[in-house]
Amino acid sequence: MERLIKDREIGYLDPDIWDLLWAFFKRGKSFTYSSCSGRITVIDADYPWSRRGSAVVFKNHLGITEEDLTGVLSKGALHRLWLVVQGPILHVYTKDMGEAWEILRIARLAGFKHSGIMTVNSKGVLVELRTGIKLTHLLKGEETEDPEVRPLVKLANEVLTRGKEKMEMLRIQVESSVRNDPVKLGQNPKG
Amino acid sequence: MERLIKDREIGYLDPDIWDLLWAFFKRGKSFTYSSCSGRITVIDADYPWSRRGSAVVFKNHLGITEEDLTGVLSKGALHRLWLVVQGPILHVYTKDMGEAWEILRIARLAGFKHSGIMTVNSKGVLVELRTGIKLTHLLKGEETEDPEVRPLVKLANEVLTRGKEKMEMLRIQVESSVRNDPVKLGQNPKG
Fold first, then answer.
1. Hey, is the C-beta of B176 within 8 angstroms of any chain A C-beta?
2. Would you state the pLDDT for residue B189?
3. A189 to chain B nearest CA, in Å?
4. Per-residue pLDDT tens for B98-156?
5. Alpha helices in chain B (DSSP H)
6. Across the strands, what pairs with B126?
7. Do B119 and A104 touch (CB under 8 A)?
8. What is d(CA A116, CA A144) in angstroms, rounded to the nearest whole number?
9. What stretch of H or E contains A162?
10. Do A152 and B136 touch (CB under 8 A)?
11. Distance from CA of A121 to the nearest CA of B (A)
12. Chain B nearest C-alpha distance from A118 (Å)
């Protein structure tokens, strides 16, 4: 929790993810690690998933404007230009496998269908929570003309919004799981 | 194994996935379930990940031609038209958690970075193996002009090939894990 509060102060956290992360901490057996509320990027790379030689030429967690996209397109590209919209991705460490399965169950209730247990290490059991929300649109290739900016900006912001909605659904499910946890109630019968 | 052989006879299996699936069976503690070698689809839907009201208007595991794409575009769409290229996705059931972690380790060696343990049920521990390879390109929206077919067909086939390469890397890693498994060697000291 101290790390999370410090991260917020420094500005490491995505601007709109605090409530969701805090909800996980309230469960007692879970804490979050590097997580993303969803974002729009423009990437200069051979492929949207490439790391080597790639560059992020635009990044925003709250939206993109026509001016943003026009500006990016005017600068050209070394490889291809990709418009990438990524839904929320959460990394949650749990104290044990039982809590990991419970986090997976809660996440699927909120529509985080592409979620799974990734590894176990000294921090705990690492669970990754993902939706199917993703856009990877070719903006500019070797032989393509410049794209129409207006419909793509509209689409990118719309997809980003779908992701934020899922994030909100996850927050509601996690908070509700804390209130309804019978173990927690048992531990504090007067509460 | 009987199910897999029957699936091949009926034609349920993707044409190019047999060798990889068989390699998993050879490990002894793993078997594969619904798996995909990677494919190109064109989807008529609000979003590429939508199920409700969506329709797959083109699907091929081996590639797409300019004629295919032109044909699909000429028919119009109820919602939006998306060109979706998906890398290979494997579902592997393992006998226990130990084997599940081992499958994850092997998969990551082959570049299947988005892999995780999904659930445990009567069949075993379900592991999903995924690469980051995915293209979701808007072909036709409310306000867009028809796209240039040639560069998109070239790109889709190129992305599909990147996926097939990863599938081959996974096959090599799985087969090599069978040969090098010290437990298996111990069980058959004369072999």
1. no
2. 46
3. 32
4. 999 999 999 999 999 999 999 999 999 999 999 999 999 999 998 888 899 999 999 99
5. 2-10, 18-26, 66-74, 97-109, 149-180, 182-187
6. B93, B119
7. yes
8. 38
9. helix A149-180
10. no
11. 12
12. 5
Q: What are the φ and ψ backbone dihedral angles of A71, each rounded to 5 degrees?
A: -60, -45
**At A33, is the secondary structure helix, strand, or coil?**
strand
Tell whether A2 is within 8 A of chain B (Cβ). no
Two structure tokens written together for A68: 């943003």
Confirm or reject contact between B73 and chain A (CB < 8 A).
no
Q: Is the pLDDT of residue B191 over 70?
A: no
Residue with the larger pLDDT of the pair B52 and A47:
A47
The CA–CA distances, whole Å, from B167 to A53, B116, B190 equal 23, 17, 32
Q: Which of B49, B104, B150 is opposite residue A132, by nearest beta carbon?
A: B49
Query: How far is the CA of A58 from the CAs of A40, A75, A119, A141, B99, in angstroms?
Result: 8, 12, 31, 17, 41
Partners of A152 on chain B (C-beta within 8 Å) are: 138
Residue with tokens 């709109």: A16
**Mean of the pLDDT values across residues A11-36?**
92
Handedness of CA B3, B4, B8, B13 (dihedral sign): positive
| Two tokens, residue A184 | 């927690």
E strands in A29-181: 30-36, 39-45, 55-60, 80-86, 89-94, 116-121, 124-130, 134-140
Rounded to a whole number of angstroms, the distance from the CA of B48 to the nearest CA of chain A is 8
Q: CB-CB: which of B49, B115, B162 is closest to A47?
A: B162
B12 close contact with A: CB closer than 8 A: no
Contact B92, B127 (CB under 8 A): yes
